[in-house]
Amino acid sequence: GQQLNQSPQSMFIQEGEDVSMNCTSSSIFNTWLWYKQDPGEGPVLLIALYKAGELTSNGRLTAQFGITRKDSFLNISASIPSDVGIYFCAGLTTSGTYKYIFGTGTRLKVLA
Amino acid sequence: EAGVVQSPRYKIIEKKQPVAFWCNPISGHNTLYWYLQNLGQGPELLIRYENEEAVDDSQLPKDRFSAERLKGVDSTLKIQPAELGDSAVYLCASSSSRGRNEQYFGPGTRLTVT
C-alpha cells in the first residue's frame, strides 16, 4: 500500500541533542498527525496539525504543517533516553477517499 | 477515559486455521479503523467503519478477511483461513466525527501464523 516518505529512516543521537525528522508526499493533505510507537505497543498520538503553516508544540516536541501541504516536520529538543522509539507521520487525504496514509517511520536511538 | 482495547494481545495459530480479533473503541467514538502493520512499516488501513457501516473496505482482502461492527461499538476482524503471510500486528483505532480527526490506537494484536 501507499506510504509516505519519512527521513531519516533511523538515527543515533546523544542525550541532550535536538532531533529533526520530516515526512514528504506528492499529495496534498488536510491534517497531519505524528505518532510514537514503542516495541510491542500501538502508536501513541503526539501532535495533530490542521492548517498549512501551523506550528504546534507538546512539551519538548514541536511539529509544523508545511506550507505546500505536502510535508510536515517534527523536532524533539534536548532528547532523553525515553525518546527512543519509532516515530510515524500520518497524512489525512479527503480527495476521493477519507483515509490516513502513514509514513515509513523514523527509528530513533538515544545514546546516554 | 479508557483507551482503545484490543484482545488478544498475542495469537499463534497454524496456517489454514481461523482467527478473530476484537476491538472496543474509545467511548463515544463513532469511527473505527482496522490497520495491518508489517514489521518495520507504518500501519496500512484495512477497513473503516462509521457507526455500523463499513465505508471503506477497499483494502480488505475479502476472500479470507471479514469484519463486523454490528451495534456500532465493538468490532471483530476475522481471517479464515490464515496464511503464513498474514503474520503481522493488527491495530484497531478510533476517532470521533465530532472531533478533529484525531485517531487513537489500541495496543494491537500480534499474529504469528506457523
Question: How would you describe this structure to a colleague?
Answer:
The complex is a heterodimer of chains A (112) and B (114). Chain A is mainly beta. Chain A has strands spanning 5-7, 10-14, 19-24, 31-37, 44-49, 55-58, 61-65, 71-76, 85-93, 99-102, 106-111. In chain A, the strands form two sheets. In chain A, strands 2, 4, 5, 9, 10 and 11 form a six-stranded mixed sheet that branches. A five-stranded antiparallel sheet of chain A has the order 1-3-8-7-6, with no helix packed on it. In chain A, a hairpin with a 5-residue loop joins strand 7 (61-65) and strand 8. Chain A is globular, with a radius of gyration of 13 Å. Chain A starts with a strand and ends with a strand. By secondary structure, chain B is mainly β. In chain B, strand 7 and strand 8 form a beta hairpin. Chain B is globular.
Provide tags for this entry:
heterodimer; A: 112 residues; mainly beta; six-stranded mixed sheet; five-stranded antiparallel sheet; 11 strands; globular; B: 114 residues; seven-stranded mixed sheet
Low-confidence stretches of chain A: none
Give the H and E element order of chain A: EEEEEEEEEEE
> What fraction of the residues of chain A are assigned to beta strands by DSSP?
over 45%
Mean pLDDT of chain A: 93
- Derived from helix and strand composition plus strand pairing, the structural class of chain B reads mainly beta
Inertia-based shape of chain B? globular
Helix content of chain B: under 10%
Overall residue-averaged pLDDT value of chain B? 94
Tell me the series of helices and strands of chain B, N- to C-terminal.
Answer: EEEEEEEEEEE
Number of strands of chain B: 11
Total number of strands of chain A:
11
Chains forming the largest contact: A-B, 25 and 26 residues
Task: Kindly provide the radius of gyration of chain A, computed on alpha-carbon positions and rounded to a whole number of angstroms.
Answer: 13 Å
End-to-end span of chain A in angstroms?
37 Å
Number of helices of chain A: 0
Radius of gyration of chain B, in Å, reads 13 Å
Q: What is the overall number of helices of chain B?
A: 0
Q: Which spans of chain B have pLDDT < 50 for at least 5 consecutive residues? A: none
The major beta sheet of chain A can be summarized as: 6 strands, mixed
